[in-house]
């Protein structure tokens, strides 16, 4: 490196050497993901983190000395989320071309918050958003933005609905979502000024879906109390059970009552690409706003979310701002990211989405999503035949929930047995599962959504589940 202490520049040769060292480590890691344990690390990480604490470095360290512990100790101490056996939570696949796109975006370091500073690069991002719009069959008036994930996208959606329907009467506004809604919705609403006493939780039915009748009754009660219902949030695939709310019915209620209908499609929205699954998502295209997570349904790296708003002008009005030191805003159809979201300084997210979509094409993503759906159906059918396993929530998309028990077992025993089953299967290292409390029940979950998860790994996971279930159910005495 340059001996000049004030210089941070690298020569072309130095950059190439560093890039090759990093690339070699990355490729070696990614190529062996299937051989790495699918579950969590053996240690909880506390002692490792204590050892890692240090003050700011005064002198530099050679790159090789930094890469070695990163890949050999620190990365292994984490969930193997991009691996083929990761069926827990909702996977983020991490397509390699997306990483290349992010590398190029960071290396060329162009500013894309304002259109005029990088018009062609911003247009690529606008193209991506319009592809999403077309896939969801939303109108040309739709605009949106790429975000860090569903949480920030939900926040912008709630702000937009608030500005359009409440104006300055913030404390009068009431929002509605089901008991199964993602926790980020309540958090985003609170940050947007819709406090807890103006958030209504609507009961779910036996299939864990929002009850339209309960929603209508809650709206009537709040109007009678002098409040202003303004927003309903429904789910196109919940995180806990994969349930899809009756989107079309909710859209009708919102249209009749003059409410904004926001759909949380972070997990399930991209399944709309598959014609055979559109009936299950009927009504999605009617939403006033939709959150999508490309790091879920498009298998991209974590940190890739999206928002689409049917009335793009409403999104712009809620976020638009300017200043004398900024370039003039574009005229006509040009898309300016800073006018549609809260960020002015922002990473260039568009390239990491655009590159894999252009490389593979929509047809391959559609085929991959259809395969994940078929694998989830296979897994649910096979598990349902295992003595002791009850499929509590069959897969509507690629996620389902189950519980372990046997005749006469108490609810507490069933919960404990399900937890034990998950722990024992994860300890085998071939698949990782997660669970969730739904009401008073602890349910095991299977979510097939990594592009690396193919039939062979699902078969291995089913074998582990069958064997461990037999051990637990077959032993004498209580289940727990």
Quick structural overview:
By secondary structure, this protein is an alpha/beta fold. Helix content is 42%, strand content 13%.
Structure description:
The protein is α/β, with parallel strands linked by helices. It has 3 domains: 67 residues; 263 residues, Type I PLP-dependent aspartate aminotransferase-like (Major domain) (Aspartate Aminotransferase, domain 2, 3-Layer(aba) Sandwich); 107 residues, Aspartate Aminotransferase, domain 1, CATH 3.90.1150.10. Helices cover 42% and strands 13% of the residues. It has 15 helices and 11 strands. The chain has a 7-stranded mixed beta sheet, sandwiched between helices. Strands 8-9-11-10 form a 4-stranded antiparallel beta sheet.
Unreliable runs, pLDDT <50, ≥5 residues?
none
Give the terminus-to-terminus CA distance: 62 Å
Q: Give the biggest sheet.
A: 7 strands, mixed
Beta percentage is 5-15%
Helical percent range? 40-55%
* Strand/helix succession: HHHHHEHEHEHEHEEHEHHHEEHEEH
Strand tally, please?
Answer: 11
Question: Going by CATH, what is the homologous superfamily of the largest domain?
Answer: Type I PLP-dependent aspartate aminotransferase-like (Major domain)
- In the CATH hierarchy, the architecture of the largest domain is 3-Layer(aba) Sandwich
Secondary structure class reads alpha/beta
Q: What is the CA-based Rg, rounded? A: 24 Å
Mean pLDDT over the residues: 95
CATH domain topology of the largest domain: Aspartate Aminotransferase, domain 2
Strand order within the widest beta sheet = 1-7-6-5-4-2-3
Q: Which assembly state applies to the chains in this document?
A: single chain
């Amino acid at each position: 490196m340059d001996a000049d202490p004030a210089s941070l520049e690298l020569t072309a040769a130095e950059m190439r050497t560093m890039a090759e060292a990093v690339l070699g480590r990355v490729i070696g890691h990614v190529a062996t993901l299937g051989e790495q344990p699918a579950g969590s690390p053996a240690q909880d990480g506390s002692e490792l983190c204590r050892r890692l604490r240090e003050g700011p470095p005064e002198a530099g360290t050679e790159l090789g000395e930094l890469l070695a512990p990163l890949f050999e100790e620190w990365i292994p101490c984490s969930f193997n989320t991009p691996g083929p056996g990761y069926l827990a939570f909702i996977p983020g696949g991490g397509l390699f071309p997306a990483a290349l796109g992010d590398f190029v975006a960071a290396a060329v370091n162009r500013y894309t918050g304002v259109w005029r500073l990088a018009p062609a690069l911003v247009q690529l991002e606008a193209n991506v958003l319009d592809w999403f719009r077309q896939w969801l069959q939303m109108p040309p008036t739709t605009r949106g933005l790429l975000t860090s994930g569903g949480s920030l996208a939900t926040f912008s959606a709630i702000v937009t609905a608030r500005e359009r329907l409440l104006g300055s009467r913030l404390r009068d506004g009431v929002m509605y979502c089901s008991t199964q809604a993602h926790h980020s919705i309540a958090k985003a609403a609170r940050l947007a000024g819709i406090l807890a006493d103006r958030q209504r939780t609507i009961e779910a039915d036996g299939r864990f879906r929002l009850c339209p009748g309960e929603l209508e009754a809650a709206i009537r009660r709040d109007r009678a109390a002098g409040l202003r219902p303004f927003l309903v949030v429904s789910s196109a695939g919940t995180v806990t059970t994969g349930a899809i709310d009756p989107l079309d019915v909710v859209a009708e209620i919102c249209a009749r009552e003059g409410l904004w209908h926001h759909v949380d499609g972070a997990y399930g929205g991209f399944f709309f690409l598959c014609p055979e699954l559109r009936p299950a998502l009927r009504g999605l295209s009617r939403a006033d706003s939709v959150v999508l997570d490309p790091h879920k349904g498009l298998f991209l790296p974590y940190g890739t979310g999206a928002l689409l708003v049917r009335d793009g002008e409403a999104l712009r009005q809620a976020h638009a701002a300017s200043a004398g030191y900024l370039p003039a805003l574009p005229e006509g159809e040009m898309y300016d990211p800073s006018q549609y979201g809260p960020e002015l300084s922002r990473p260039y997210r568009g390239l990491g989405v655009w590159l894999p979509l252009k490389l593979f094409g929509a047809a391959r993503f559609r085929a991959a999503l259809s395969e994940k759906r078929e694998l989830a159906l296979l897994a649910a059918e096979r598990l349902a035949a295992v003595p002791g396993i009850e499929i509590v929530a069959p897969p509507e998309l690629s996620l389902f929930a189950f519980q372990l028990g046997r005749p006469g077992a108490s609810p507490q025993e069933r919960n404990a047995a399900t937890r034990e089953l998950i722990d024992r299967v994860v300890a085998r290292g071939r698949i990782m599962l997660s669970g969730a409390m739904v009401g008073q029940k602890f349910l095991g979950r299977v979510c097939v959504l990594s592009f690396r998860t193919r039939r062979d790994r699902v078969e291995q996971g089913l074998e582990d589940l069958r064997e461990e279930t037999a051990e637990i159910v077959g032993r004498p005495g209580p289940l727990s």
